[in-house]
Amino acid sequence: MEYKTLAEAYQAIENTSKRLEKTSIISDLLKQTKQKEISKIILLLQGRVFPNWDKTSIGIASKLVVKAINKATGIDTKKIIDKFKKTGDLGLVAEQFTKKKTQATLFSESLTVEKVFKSLKKIPTIEGTGSVDKKMQIVSELLTSASPLEAKYIVRTVLEELRVGISKGTLRDAIGWAFLEKKLNFTYKQEYNIIELEDRDKYNQIMQLLQDAFDLTNDFTLVTTAAINNTLHTIKPEIGKPINPMLCRKEKNIEEAFKRTGKPAQFEYKYDGFRMQIHKANNTITLFTRNLENITTQFPEVVDIITTHVKGNSFIIDGEAVGFDAKTGKAKPFQHISQRIKRKYDIQELAKKIPVEINLFDILHYEGKNLLKTPLQERMDLLKKIIKEETKKIVFTKSIITDDDQIAQQFYDDALEEGMEGIIVKDLKTIYKPGGRIDAWIKLKPVMEPLDLVIVEAEWGEGKRSGWFTSFVLACRDEEGNLLTIGKVGTGVKEKKESDDDLTFEELTVLLKPLIEVEEGRTVKVKPNIVLEINYEEIQKSPSYTSGYALRFPRVIRNRTDERDITNISDLELVEEFYFAQK
Ligand code: AMP
Q1: Ligand 1, residues 250, 275, 426: which to mutate, most atoms within 8 A of Cβ?
Q2: Fewer CB within 10 Å, N side or C side of the chain?
Q3: DSSP track, 488-544
Q4: Mean pLDDT score, 172-184
Q5: CA 448 from centroid of its chain's CA atoms
Q6: Which of 243, 249, 271, when mutated, tests ligand 1's pocket best, judged by the most ligand atoms within 8 Å of its CB?
């Protein structure tokens, strides 16, 4: 298929729910794209203008887009808002009203990918007085030149909600189909929605190569260039650029964990802190969270500790930062240190009040050598050689190696006794799999696993709670990134803050107000941005929510927006896994 514009391709992708068909459309689009535009198209297909590892956001609220539509089309603001309330999608509103736009704007220059891309990238750099108006101006200029279909997707891209249903897996496959077609040796039969493969193993191997390249770089643009130039196998971790951290699967007990990892296995404490990936090169130390966010400035004391306690000029090491009370020395649960991740001022003071201890458990790169394919045991041996341990600063994760169920159980009990979340059981022979949730790392935790869910709707309270939102509709995601509702929660949120850990209705209301998209009576739809960690007693099947599941007695544990966004909240697969696991 030939696509005249990117918008036309978006439309075709949005119009089908079949993954193979989406893959085929994207691959056709990529094949017809000129070399110099490929990287931009790859980003725009993800609804982005900044690379995946770059956390810069366009940062434009719906209100400003309403103004831009008004300016570009001459349609009354109230009309625009009314339509928005009905559809909940400003993209659709822009599409409809652009059709009706007045004569005066008909002869504008037409849009190029280059122009859209450049304009959108400029938006976050505009600062100072009049910046809001300048930003609005950029969006309205784009809309003035846009066809109705283009207007729809420009608005959605500006609001960072493309909603055409392209998952990372689909994009990866499409890049393969477009640029490694001969090697993959397949035929796509649209009428039956199937692919026929000459050699399934080879096909899977090549797709895995693409996936590995992505997990190492978090950059589909780079992966695409490598696919085109046939250099996928040479992609290496780059110090200073975060690697997707390896993750764990969950199991019920020691016996089941051993089945996955084999015997003997390494048992480690599971600390309740947050993941920290530490890079050093050319005397520069960089710290990243699990979400690949750069948090170097927020943790100056960690930079100092790494400088003095880790031998080597270049490395990437992996661990968990655990907060503790400066006075008592006692470990503090994650909620306490979350403020350090956000803090932009008085950083030194906060670092003194809530210091962190780094608990290291892995090394991925050392003095120019990539260790991802080196077995865990060897990685641990090296890590031990290069770290000078010091309590409350930098230590190894507490661990044992055993093949004995009873010794392992005792270790697990001790961990819980000491206030750990649980333990992690690791296969000693396996490689470090970036982004992988595989059988090599198994977590054991006693309680029902909480879910990370995003707020999509909120309801105003009544009586003395009438100034706050007091009830929240939560959603998980599916593989394509669509949000599916799964329950409603109010419990767990406090009226008054009694301890630092408490999350109050007022705090949530302040966070949600700027995100309001549509108001209907006492309910508001909000831009999905606030992620809560939720406990519950049981997961049940339910037709009331679009996920098909509902949570029984859900309870808010904490705000997890610092570590999670809509791309990595709990997915339907996980919900289903928990649903079956509880039986
Ligand atoms: P979860 O977030 O429950 O899936 O658990 C995985 C997280 O546990 C990792 O991303 C780390 O932040 C944390 N963690 C704590 N201790 C360890 C450990 N010894 N090995 C690996 N991850 C750990």
Answers
A1: 275
A2: C
A3: EE-TT-BSS--STT--BHHHHHHHHGGGEEEEETTEEEE-S--EEEEE-SEEEE-TT
A4: 97
A5: 23
A6: 271
pLDDT-derived band at 43 (thresholds 50, 70, 90) equals: very high
Catalytic position from the list 22, 270, 280, 527: 270
CATH match for 257-444 among 3.40.50.300, 3.40.190.120, 3.30.420.40, 3.30.470.30? 3.30.470.30
| Closest of 337, 324, 335, 331 to residue 419, by C-alpha | 331
Give the distance, in angstroms, between the CA of residue 562 and the centroid of all CA atoms in the same chain: 11
Report the amino acid identity of residue 218: N
| Residues forming CATH 2.40.50.140 domain(s) in the chain | 451-582
Q: How far apart are CA 278 and CA 201, in angstroms?
A: 36
CATH number of 451-582: 2.40.50.140
Q: Which helix (H) or strand (E) holds 165?
A: none
pLDDT, tens digit, 9 for 90 and up, residues 502-536: 899 999 999 999 999 988 889 999 999 999 999 99
- Give catalytic status of residue 270 as yes or no: yes
Segment 2-35, tens digit of pLDDT:
888 899 999 999 999 999 999 999 999 999 999 9
**Residue of the nearest CA to atom 12 in ligand 1?**
275
- Between the CA of 134 and the centroid of ligand 1 the distance, in Å, is 44
Return residue ranges of the chain for CATH 3.30.470.30: 257-444
Dihedral Cα 455, 347, 246, 265, nearest 10 deg: -120
Query: What is the position in ligand 1's atom list of the atom closest to the CA of 269?
Result: 19
Which tokens belong to 322? 């655990």
* Any atom of ligand 1 within 6 Å of the Cβ of 241: no
Parts of the chain belonging to CATH 1.10.3260.10? 58-159
Distance from the alpha carbon of residue 539 to the mean position of ligand 1, in angstroms: 24
CB 397 less than 6 A from any atom of ligand 1: yes
Contact between 492 and 425 under an 8 Å Cβ cutoff? The reply is no
3-state secondary structure at position 471: strand
Q: Is the pLDDT of residue 104 over 50?
A: no
Measured in Å, residue 242 CA sits from the centre of ligand 1 at 17
Cβ of 571 less than 6 Å from ligand 1 = no
> Is 217 a residue whose pLDDT tops 70?
yes
Which H or E element spans position 425?
A: strand 422-427
Count the Cβ atoms, other than its own, within 10 Å of residue 165.
Answer: 18
* 303 CA from centroid of ligand 1 (Å): 21
Determine the pLDDT at residue 103: 43
Locus of tokens 């997890």: 560
Fold of 58-159: DNA ligase i, domain 1 (1.10.3260)
